Amino acid sequence: MAVGIFDSGLGGLTVLDVVATRLPHVPLVYFGDNAHAPYGVRTPDDIYNLTTAATQRLFDAGCDLVILACNTASAAALRRMQESWVPPGKRVLGVFVPLIEALTERQWGDNSPPREVAVKHVALFATPATVATRAFQRELAFRAIGVDVEAQACGGVVDAIEEGDMILAEALVRSHVDALRRKMPSPDAAVLGCTHYPLLADIFQDALGPDVQVFSQANLVAASLADYLDRRPEMIGPGLDNMFLTTGDPARVSNRATQFLRRQITFTAA
């Protein structure tokens, strides 16, 4: 049984890379729905249907545990999937949980009343669809009080990254940070609420300034997954072979992925 990692495109490779380094004994299957990326401009029903289809493909590939390494899917589809779709014996986890745990310094299962936390002004950078769900604000409000969240929908960034146009992606990031600053001049923390964005983490940090703590999800998700598998070792199967699947053109996606991770990545058709 491998662990499945899903993203609408290539952004989830930032999660896979850290997971593979931290958990080299865990076989991984990555699914990129590149033919339908980006999800950030799609309707909730569309996102749900695409996400369940991708997750089913990972179940079919032998994964009992699937990580939605896509904030848009986690925000728009995960709760509905967990309530009415995920079959017995399978688990689907999102990327919001480790992030909320880090911001609030409390475990997900801690159901005590919301309390004050260290951060007071949080800038959220995410896709338009993720921002529209307000899922991040909702989950944060269950666990923390007195936190002001200002969300900035970062249109165009995922498209630029998927096309390999990092010059355009950088320009868009700086423009979105400027727009956020006009609404929240002095954030003390920033959340990169899309797994594509760690590829531009240095740009976000430079644009925001050294006094802003930038939370990037890849390391948080890997640490959370390691803890989960320590408690649920039955979710890990034998073998070390990783697999990369895509709904897009395998040669083109392999080339982009190899550029991103700076090592040879070979995708096959899903």
Overview of the molecule:
The mean pLDDT is 91. This protein has helices at 13-22, 44-60, 71-76, 78-84, 96-104, 128-133, 135-143, 157-162, 166-183, 201-208, 217-231, 250-261, and strands spanning 2-7, 28-32, 63-68, 91-93, 115-116, 121-126, 144-145, 148-153, 189-192, 213-215, 243-246, 268-269. The two termini are 18 Å apart. The protein folds into 2 domains: 2-94 and 218-269, Rossmann fold; 97-217, 3-Layer(aba) Sandwich (Rossmann fold). Helix content is 46%, strand content 18%. The protein has 12 helices and 12 strands. Helix 5 packs parallel to helix 7 (135-143). The relative contact order is 0.19. The chain is an alpha/beta fold and 270 residues long.
Please write out the topology.
Elements: E1 2-7, H1 13-22, E2 28-32, H2 44-60, E3 63-68, H3 71-76, H4 78-84, E4 91-93, H5 96-104, E5 115-116, E6 121-126, H6 128-133, H7 135-143, E7 144-145, E8 148-153, H8 157-162, H9 166-183, E9 189-192, H10 201-208, E10 213-215, H11 217-231, E11 243-246, H12 250-261, E12 268-269
Parallel strand pairs: 1-2, 1-3, 2-11, 3-4, 5-7, 6-8, 6-9, 9-10, 11-12
Helix pairs in contact: 1-11, 5-7, 5-11, 9-10
In short:
By secondary structure, this protein is an alpha/beta fold.
Looking at CATH, which topology of the largest domain would you report?
Answer: Rossmann fold
H-E string = EHEHEHHEHEEHHEEHHEHEHEHE
The averaged pLDDT comes out at 91
Domain module tally = 2
Number of helices: 12
Radius of gyration: 18 Å
CATH class of the largest domain: Alpha Beta
Distance linking N and C termini: 18 Å
Number of strands: 12
Task: Characterize the quaternary organization of these chains.
Answer: single chain
Secondary-structure content class: alpha/beta
